[in-house]
Amino acid sequence: MLVLTRRHGESVRIGPDVRVTVVASTGGQVRIAIDAPEEVGIFREEIFERVASANVEAASMSNKTMTGLKAARGLSAATLEGKINE
Amino acid sequence: MSELIRFESRRVGEIEVAASDVLNFEPLPGFPEKRRFVVMEHAADSAMAWLVSLDDPDLAFVVTSPWSFFPQYDPPIEREHFATLGIEKRDELELLCIVTLSGKEIYLNLAAPLVINAASRKGMQVVSDDPRYTTRAPLPTFSEQDEQAAEQKSGMATNTPAGPGA
Predict the structure, then answer these.
(1) How is B63-122 classified by DSSP, letter by letter?
(2) Helix (H) or strand (E) holding B144
(3) Contact, B25 vs B124, CB < 8 A?
């Protein structure tokens, strides 16, 4: 990991397309401006982490659980189908 | 005629899919190197499907269309997502949510849906911090759906909930 010190108004360039600028900092908070192409995803880390963990948990579901899932959802889907077709 | 791809998945077994069915995903949080996936039917009577990795025999997700369970679901899909997927209008998208099981509870990840450009076979997980949606939204329990169905049948409801999304 690269650690840099910047003053207000100074920037860091990441790759050719991304620029991060320190706008302001007060009381333990830093205001950051990020210049990046539209398709580059920018997330608060804790949100990204939450999704990553959720994906990992979802991927570890066992096949045995999946069989149980099938039975439950089969019934519910049929109930919904019935509603829609009425 | 599209070329056929055979793959031995340890989650769903041996599969054979057309190359044109393969979805190419932007890196998924937690699985950034697994990019090629295919949607497989789970069972004829099931609302669920498998999203099977063609890059990792141990990786597959259970996915579902969320609107059967959450008819008002309306996740924010922004211009940058449209740009990444190469689409111009929302109706060019297909959307699936990842399913998690925990004990007997079934959850949908509504905070980070999988969004797909059906025409180009490109997909991505749209991560949002919209406070309305969680990564673990419990499905209405079977008994709740039963109650709703019973109310419908008794003829009181004239506004049927929206059917599965487009």
Answers:
(1) EE-GGGT-TT------HHHHHHHT-SSGGGEEEEEEEEEETTEEEE--SS-EEEETTTTE
(2) helix B142-153
(3) yes
Regarding pTM above 0.80, the answer is no
**Residue A71 is inside which H or E element, if any?**
helix A63-85
The distance between the two most distant Cα atoms of chain B, rounded to a whole number of Å, is 53
Is A34 in CB contact (< 8 Å) with chain B? no
Distance in angstroms (rounded) separating the CA atoms of residues B43 and A58? 19
Better-predicted residue by pLDDT, B90 or A2: A2
Sequence letter at residue B132: R
ipTM of the complex: 0.82
Q: Nearest CB to A83: which of B59, B142, B152?
A: B152
Residues from chain A contacting residue B40 (CB–CB below 8 Å): none
Backbone angles phi, psi at A29, to 5 degrees: -115, 140
